[in-house]
Design a protein that fits this description.
heterodimer; A: 477 residues; mainly alpha; two-stranded antiparallel ribbon; globular; B: 517 residues; 76% helix
């Protein structure tokens, strides 16, 4: 018999699933050519309910469902991050779908289901359940990537993402199988207990395979090749979603798999991947003309910075990683929200040249995008600064001088291409008259959320960092 | 009163920012925006005058301090305070700001709102740099000056503005990464970002591994400041940034931003690493002297007036660095004084250039000639300011250069001899330029019909002219508060380095002897 309290421990997931099903059921009732905005509203209400449910969870920390679920500060933190991402994405999508004439009601349902998967990823402590959660979130995102059905590049993005993604999850599954073979359990904390006393060569292989699978999800080099193409082809709000949500969730899983289990032998793997991601991502971004591709490469680089925190290990490293995930989510979702507004019909205005003179045509949005870009560079007063600061000081405390130097040089390179976008917006003259629509309410709220989060993390990072420290402690228990 | 004294620095720092935020919600009526920006900058000036008014003279150490914890991990404090050195730099900033607003009144006609928002944000950041006593907070403001300035150059400049803006940004940004690394190293070993705490820890030898790292830390700070000053090999961003920037941008760049570099050298490189400063002084002084002479020679052959004035900054700031690294009371006093007087006279020169540019849209010397005929008032203002920049006795430039040179002679005769040639050079290039632009017959017909300065332009120049005169006649007004701060900075210094300079020679005495009071 499952105790009732267990259901509270998956309450946010339940709430979102129910709302997802409601969206699916109401969708057929809306005429073919009608606006799908009401569905979006339902999804937003669902996400807010999910946030409330997460808030309820704080009184009920503990394990559930035969120790497959674990609610602690760590899971709550990532629940909130993922839910806020979903909220901003839904708010942005309201207008985007109208403009792009995407009339699929299941869009919102898929966003909700994907969010369920990501939340489950952060609270599951059973590798098989983690795998299922990973699949829930991945499959939903595969479909979302292909939402612009009429555009060939969207279909290409979806297919590429799907094929490579399934390939990568297979690696993860192999890893799980090997762990089970070696330790006789798939529970993260069970594995930890086993590894405290014994060791096995198989575990090394298993950790490597799982890292490959998750490395794909977080787009870290050398598993990053899919990223630019998929980001370029997918609808902009979906890119906002998949460049932050699944990434944050996959990092949560990676934290559990690498640290909570006390698995051995991953240090150099992470070190090399971090150095490669930062370098390849930033060098790749230098030459991009398409803004979405540019941000795709930048997201690879940011995965690299985050992995630096992994390599730093210990509590400071974990908390730095958690903090980085949160502030990266805030600034990247915001940047893509602005881009999805600029994209206009058929995603026409996506190259840097199209951004020329935006500071004049749309001063408000240009200013907001500038703040997000400055945060991505890591300029003070923004979350991006403290994120980088914590990561690199954690790395220095762990005596990772080489990796820190690589990271700092990369940050300097990165400044150049983010700056280029700002230069185009403010200092170049526009080519033709491209009108930018007024900011709709939904987008306005979404931008406000991510802007406030970005600035808050940059001015008063103390509380979030304390919480991240607490989460790191809970994770290791 | 206690409340005001405790919070005055925060008020002065954040008043412009509050104005900028309010301005963001203004409707786009350019007139209102200009008046509002002027009001905010005047209010800030007024508030900042509280500082010299209630500043306890003759006392070393920091005053008007505010210290509270900002972030617990890492241990970052919101720690502000000023001593006699930073006091006047703050006032210089708030003093130049309303004039910059006035000078941009008509020349900025496009995207007016953004311009004044950027200017006010820049003001907050600049003042913050001078009053921050927490290294992290300092870095924070330091970086924060970068973006508004780069945007001002890139959005409102002319010619190769994008190139200039990006060059400015990258130079400063990359250089300050080294400073950040040094700051983090210090934090890792002392557990504090607080300037005073770190200084004490270093003096008492409580920092583990400081001996081996000291040189690298010194260089980390030095690179960031040297780029900003700019010292000789890393000065190449300056002519570009100055020439392409709009007038107000050039004024602030020359008047305040460059001083951030010399202020940093004085406060951090001398304050934290006296031993290393002494050891590295010879080559730094060599660079400074090269800068003085090289800057002057390059200025002489410039066909573009603004570029010429830009190179004079390289030359004049060389004097400041020379004064600082002479480690003598006179030299450092003079360096601080030279910072202020360069802010006044070069700021005024750039404003004058902006006025002529508004009329003719060119800076080429060959486009002018005989300007004194159609614009007598302009020519008078120009010659006055130019003479103050050359270093005519009884004007501000003289005092600074005189003190620096006295200090340089005390430190080593060769330094003094070489640097003194810089004074001659500056007279050469400025007077020659003046002759070509203002005297003789009007060579370009378009110049015949130029109108002279109007009331707004005169109003924006008078404060600078008066300041130049008062600073030249009564330097003790300033030196009274600069002197104790400098001697405090040098005392902890000479205890370690046993500098041979006679500690009794104070600038105030020397000046009194010279002026005969």
């Amino acid at each position: 018999m499952i105790p009732a309290i267990d259901y509270i421990r998956i309450l946010p997931e339940l709430v979102l699933s129910v709302f997802g099903i409601i969206v699916m059921m109401i969708d057929p009732l809306i005429p073919e050519q009608g606006s799908k905005k009401p569905l979006g509203m339902i999804a937003i209400v669902g996400i807010l309910a999910g946030l409330a449910a997460t808030a309820c969870q704080t009184g009920f920390y503990g394990n559930a469902f035969y120790n497959t679920i674990r609610v602690d500060t760590f899971s709550v933190f990532f629940h909130v991050v993922v839910l806020l991402i979903a909220l901003v994405v839904s708010l942005t999508s309201l207008e985007y779908l109208e403009v792009q004439r995407i009339r699929s009601g299941e869009y919102y349902a898929l966003v909700l289901f994907a969010t369920v998967g990501m939340m489950l990823m952060s609270s599951a402590v059973e590798l098989v359940l983690i795998f299922i959660a990973l699949e829930i979130s991945s499959i939903s995102t595969y479909i979302l990537a292909g939402m612009r059905r009429r555009a060939a590049e969207s279909a290409e993005a979806s297919l590429k993402y799907f094929l490579l993604g399934s390939f990568a999850t297979a690696f993860f599954l192999y890893g799980v199988a090997l762990v089970f073979g070696a330790t006789g359990t798939t529970n993260v904390y069970g594995i930890a207990r086993y590894l405290q006393t014994q060791s096995s060569l198989l575990v090394y292989l298993a950790v490597g395979l799982m890292f490959v699978g998750l490395g794909f999800k977080v787009a870290s080099a050398p598993f990053h090749v899919w990223t630019p193409d998929v980001y370029e082809g997918s609808p902009a709000p979906v890119v906002a979603f998949m460049s932050t949500g699944p990434k944050a969730a996959a990092f949560a899983v990676l934290l559990r798999v690498l640290f909570a289990t006390g698995a051995p032998g991953w240090f150099w793997m992470v070190w090399v991947s971090a150095a490669l991601s930062m370098t390849l991502g930033n060098i790749g971004a230098l030459v991009q003309q398409n803004v979405k591709r540019l941000l795709a490469y930048s997201s690879i680089a940011h995965a690299g910075y985050l992995l630096v925190a992994f390599a730093a290990a210990r509590q400071v490293g974990i908390s730095a990683a958690i903090f980085y995930a949160a502030s990266y989510a805030a600034m990247n979702v915001g940047a893509f929200a602005v881009i999805s507004h600029f994209a206009s019909t058929g995603e026409k205005y996506v190259t840097l040249d199209d951004y020329a003179g935006l500071g004049r045509r749309s001063p408000m949005l240009a200013a907001i995008l500038t703040i997000f870009l400055l945060s991505l560079i890591g300029i003070p007063v923004t979350g991006g600064f403290f994120a980088k600061f914590y990561v690199f000081s954690a790395a220095l405390q762990s005596h990772l001088v080489g990796l820190t130097i690589i990271g700092v040089i990369n940050s300097a390179i990165a400044a150049y291409y983010y700056l280029r976008v700002i230069v185009y917006m403010y200092m170049r003259d526009e080519r033709g008259e491209i009108s930018v629509a007024r900011i709709p309410a939904g987008l306005g709220i979404g931008l406000a959320i991510s802007l406030i989060a970005t600035i808050y993390l940059g001015v008063l990072p103390g509380r979030v960092l304390d919480y991240a420290m607490q989460s790191a402690q809970d994770l290791m228990k | 009163m206690k409340f005001i004294n405790d919070n005055i620095l925060s008020i002065v720092v954040f008043l412009p920012l509050a104005g900028a935020i309010l301005l963001a919600f203004f409707p786009r009526r350019d007139r209102d925006i200009r008046y509002f920006a002027l009001a905010v900058s005047l209010l800030t000036l007024l508030a900042s005058l509280h500082l010299p008014w209630y500043f306890v003279r003759g006392q070393s150490g920091f005053q008007f301090e505010a210290d509270s914890q900002w972030i617990s991990r890492p241990n970052i404090h919101y720690h502000l305070g000023i001593d006699g050195i930073s006091l006047w730099l703050v006032v210089l900033t708030t003093f130049l700001m309303p004039l910059c607003v006035l000078i941009s009144w008509k020349s900025i006609g496009d995207r007016v709102k953004e311009f004044f928002i950027l200017m006010l944000i820049l003001e907050t950041a600049m003042i913050g740099v001078f009053v921050a006593l927490d290294l992290f907070l300092f870095y924070f403001f330091w970086e924060a000056t970068l973006i508004p300035m780069a945007l001002i150059i890139g959005m409102y400049g002319h010619g190769r503005k994008i190139y200039a803006a990006v060059k400015f940004f990258l130079y400063t940004m990359i250089a300050s990464v080294f400073m950040l690394a040094a700051i983090i190293w210090l934090y890792a070993r002392t557990g504090s970002f607080d300037f005073v705490t770190i200084q004490n820890a270093i003096q008492n030898g409580q920092v583990a591994g400081f001996g081996q790292a000291a040189l690298w830390l010194f260089l980390g700070f030095f690179v960031a400041f040297a780029v900003k000053v700019p010292l000789f090999p890393v000065h190449t961003w300056l002519p570009d940034a100055h020439v392409e920037a709009p007038t107000a941008g050039s004024v602030l760049l020359a008047g305040v931003l460059l001083k951030m570099g010399t202020y940093g050298l004085l406060r951090f490189n001398l304050g934290l690493f006296p031993e290393e400063a002494r050891r590295n002084a010879p080559w730094i002084i060599a660079l400074a002297i090269i800068g003085i002479i090289y800057g002057a020679l390059v200025a002489m052959i410039q066909p573009n007036i603004k570029r010429l004035i830009a190179y004079t900054s390289v030359s004049h700031l060389g004097f400041v660095v020379l004064g600082i690294f002479s480690f003598t009371q006179l030299g450092v006093d003079g360096a601080v004084y030279q910072m202020l007087s360069h802010g006044v006279s070069t700021g005024a020169l750039f404003m004058l250039l902006g006025m002529i540019y508004d009329r003719r849209h060119t800076y080429e010397i060959t486009e002018y000639g005989g300007l004194a005929t159609p614009m007598p008032v302009f020519a008078t203002f120009f010659v006055f300011i130019m003479l103050s920049s050359v270093g005519l006795p009884l004007l501000n430039g003289f005092i600074g250069e005189f003190l620096v040179l006295s200090g340089a002679f005390q430190a080593k005769q060769l330094y003094g001899i070489l640097a003194a040639t810089g004074v001659i050079w500056s007279a050469c290039y400025l007077l020659w330029m003046y002759q070509r632009v203002f005297y003789g017959n009007v060579t370009v017909p378009a110049n015949n019909s130029l109108r002279d300065l109007d009331a707004r332009e005169r109003v924006s120049l008078w404060p600078l002219v008066i300041a130049a005169l008062v600073m030249g006649v009564a330097p003790t007004l300033w030196l009274h508060s600069i002197d104790p701060a400098v001697s405090a900075a040098l005392k902890q210094f000479s205890a370690i380095t046993q500098a041979a300079a006679p500690a009794t020679m104070h600038a105030t005495q020397v000046i009194s002897q010279v002026i005969g009071r």
